[in-house]
Amino acid sequence: MSATALPKMVPAAFMSVVLIWSTTPLGIVWSSESVHPTMAVLLRMLIALLLGSLIILLMRIRLPWNPSARKLYAVSSIGIVGGMLLSYFAARYLPSGTMSLIFGLSPLISGLLAQKILNEPKFSPMRLVALAIAFIGLGIVCSAKLSLSSDSWIGLLLILTAVSLFSLSGVLIKTVKINIHPIASTVGALIYSTPMFAVAWLLFDGTVPIDTWQPRSLMAIVYLGVFGSLIGFIAYFYVLQHLNASTVALVTLITPVFAMMLGAQLNGEAITQALAIGACFVLTGLALFQFGDQLRAKLIKNANAK
Known about the structure:
Elements: H1 9-31, H2 37-59, H3 67-90, H4 96-103, H5 106-117, H6 125-148, H7 152-173, H8 182-204, H9 215-242, H10 245-248, H11 250-267, H12 273-305
Helix pairs in contact: 1-4, 1-9, 1-11, 2-3, 2-8, 2-9, 3-7, 3-8, 4-11, 5-7, 6-12, 11-12
């Protein structure tokens, strides 16, 4: 689709996804400062569920409840519950920039899982090189964090598990054949996942110490509920409908950079030399993974044309 044929809202939606995904890790860190992680994510999900349900009613969007729809909601909740809950716990051990950088590895992990679950073709040599470069960068980032803090390994283990569950959920969603409105799929997944967050809150906390909650945490929870869990998801699906996958994949390259900058400027997070080097490796690996084969094919074509 040519740029001139794109609906006017597509650029705005794309930038919305970039900004929301860039600010989400910092929002998670801030929301967990004075509110227990399980309560913070539960409140976030409740806000998103209430607003999403209201949109469903006002716009009269059909919310299917057949077996295929319920399967879609269930596999979606794997990424929502596993990915978000573990990310909130990881926020107590890791800065927001590092969390965003590691979450950027999701396309690579999804690709590996898709080979097993969806029988997709094995990685090309270029993608194998990209995978190796990205994980070398991850190793540099992890070693830097472990040398700075003895309990960073807890956060790293939590966020890596979160990314793996998020990626697994994304691959399993592709196994469900159903035509459904993105807002309906969002609300359906929230209906399935929100009770699980309530159970997690009962198990790990179970208290409501409102007097200790700080305004910044509460504002971050509201922001994440409205934008991170609802508007961002809707904008992402809207962008997917009008842009090709390689263009949308740019989001995973842009957001870690913005997230690290925001964390440094707004939260005083240090960007060490090792972290910067590791980030360069990870982002280079992601770029080669998404565009390496296209670039190689173009170079070969140009060479043969001479």
